[in-house]
């Protein structure tokens, strides 16, 4: 597909419950031709189907058995491939448009059998209620979630606007479960925020890549330059950005790079997955008659930049950070990113069901694979002055069972951190901090980014061994 992208593409991390769906689409594709089928194995499958129908303790519907067989087959491949039933498919399409009804939490693969919260979406019902990254959901109303498949728990968290739900949460450091009563809302997630931190220095935050993101970003940049035509430095904040539409990532990167530069490439079995995507309108715009980037100030291509990332920065945000890093257009600051470098293509099965299938890996302009490794910042800076806080508790792609391997680099760069992870968890939990409000006066990493832009000293992350040892010696 060296031409225009077809429809919308999402790239991101995990599943979002009432949440923004953050998966990766590269394109809405047609069903491919079917290769020769293994008849012996299919006969065995038919035999098992017949045994269940005849011998199981109670009747089971044909549709349930076959749907679960499809779901299990696809889910066995890797953490991001999945069967999408009617509801899941509809929610996925809604999520790419930046609106959905739910709680406003991004969830990831289970931990100890419970559903793990990656992060609450800013300004959502869950965020206002006090849900934190790393919380484990044990019950939804009276339904225990332990051992429940992720997709099933997502369905329970979805609901009608204004309906209420009680979440029972296990939180490290708390002796008793916490109960949060949350009202579902239609969440219109504005993916772009921005402001002048002080004269000459702007902060631009992208919380997720949606269909409107490039347009919204262009409008916000124009607004900032109207307030101050002489911006001397820009901080692009991609922390906790789990991904989103591929066009959004291409457009955001293209805004800051010279015209027509390669932004990302993909490689898979299909010819259409062996593709290079460039910073041209046909690769990032959704409407042929508009180019949101055409009227941006020319100064934007040269303004000094720092990009903030953390372990919650995944997929589309890693594409942007990787491209800006490869071209040395910006310095990347923060902590190692999530490491989701695979492409999931949506293949429609019926009018309202589909399969989300991993079809390719993607690479930075210099050919680096992000998969199970992530982007290593140029400047390692912790979330707080005294450590990395809850960011140290996050799961990474390399931690997920059956994750796709990195085909170009070893994944061993994280080994040392993994060996110290339990000690880091203890340190982080001792701090008992409130969720950080990005862009606020308490935002330590943002303060360090501004220092870098001004040529002032930056407080870099301490070596983890030093931090851990200091804690153990208390």
UniProtKB/TrEMBL annotation:
EC number(s) from the headed UniProt entry: 3.4.21.-
GO molecular function: endopeptidase activity; serine-type peptidase activity
Tagged with keyword Endoplasmic reticulum: no
UniProt-listed InterPro entries: ClpP/crotonase-like_dom_sf, CtpA/B_N, PDZ, PDZ_6, PDZ_sf, Peptidase_S41A, Tail-specific_protease
Lineage top rank: taxon: Bacteria
Biological-process GO terms, alphabetical: proteolysis; signal transduction
Record key words, sorted: Hydrolase, Protease, Serine protease
GO cellular component, one term: outer membrane-bounded periplasmic space
Ranges for domain PDZ: 89-158
Enzymatic class: hydrolase
Family indicated by similarity: Belongs to the peptidase S41A family.
Descriptive protein name: Putative CtpA-like serine protease
